[in-house]
Amino acid sequence: MGLFSFFNKTKKGTDSTVQSNELLQDDSNMTSETSVETTLSYHPEWDVPKEQQYVFSFLSNELPPLKSNQISLSGIEIDDNGPSGEWSVKAFFRSSLSKPITLGKVELILLSETDNVLAAKEFDLAALGEIPAHSDRPWVFEFEKETHTVSEMPGEGWKLAFNVQSLVPHQLDLDPAWKEALSEDQKEALSKLVSSLPSLKDREVNFSGFQVAPQENGDLAVSLFIRNGHSRHINLEQLPLEVLDASGEIVARGSFTLENLEVKANTSKPWTFIFPSLMITKTNPDLSRWAVKVIEE
């Protein structure tokens, strides 16, 4: 762990808990009301001073019981590392499974008392080592300044949580109206199309057109995927778009009000935009190849 980061006995964070099968690919998903007490476990490479052993034992004994097959993060305190702006989030990683576990990469999010996201970062939890059955292990999670979404470090009532959505493969997100209007074959075709698109970068949002259709009244209907590479939902209220034909010339241009359109985390949502004839800037365009772009304002 490098320089040992001391914990204090005052607990300022709260707890977050998930069922183990949300993080692990196993069958440990049977719930039980039986309480499971966890016991303190140190990383094998830690050389813990006696004074700190006392603090860890005190904090561990104060942790509430878990139900079977749960994994939990119990927040203790946060240190601000001065000029670097890095936050050191101190917590216990807890497991009520009846067998040892080792986790891999997963995004952790730091939440305020009102569940607003304060910071988010992907961690390789393999660094914690093998977590014994029914145990809790103290750890320090470093959130660099660029991972913060706010400037002020939280005081009390915050929690560190697993973003299980970050483990879900990118998939199709259909609006209820689309679900009702499309046949199962059409839904399957859209799902396959989403799977064929290039992977998004972390936190990338882009727009990929998949159908363009001139209308008899002179309007232009353009269907595209709004692709969300974030591990949390996004909402769009205004979207300025332009359509380009095979020659790269602008065919249509306009801005659309979406009334807070939600695109779920790590999904692609299909949506159709109707460009009225007044927004059409080119007659008889070559739409054998075309593209749709967000207008940079």
Q: How many discrete domains?
A: 2
Shape: elongated
Number of helices: 3
Main sheet characteristics: 5 strands, mixed
CATH topology tier name of the largest domain: Immunoglobulin-like
Determine the structural class based on helices, strands and strand pairing: mainly beta
CATH class of the largest domain: Mainly Beta
Order of helices and strands: EEEHEEEEEEEEHHEEEEEE
Spatially, the strands of the biggest sheet line up as: 1-5-6-9-3
Computed Rg: 25 Å
- Beta-strand fraction estimate: 35-45%
Range of helix content: 10-25%
Mean pLDDT: 90
Catalogue the unreliable spans: none
Number of strands: 17
Instruction: Name the CATH architecture of the largest domain.
Output: Sandwich
The termini sit apart by 46 Å
Descriptive notes:
The protein folds into 2 domains: 15-166, Immunoglobulin-like, CATH 2.60.40; 171-294, Immunoglobulin-like (Sandwich). It has 297 residues and is mostly beta strands. The protein has helices spanning 50-62, 176-181, 184-196; strands at 15-19, 35-36, 39-40, 66-67, 70-80, 87-95, 105-111, 117-124, 135-143, 159-162, 171-172, 205-214, 220-228, 234-244, 250-263, 267-275, 291-294. The strands form 5 sheets. A 5-stranded mixed beta sheet has the order 1-5-6-9-3, with helices on one face. Strand 14 (234-244) and strand 15 form a beta hairpin.
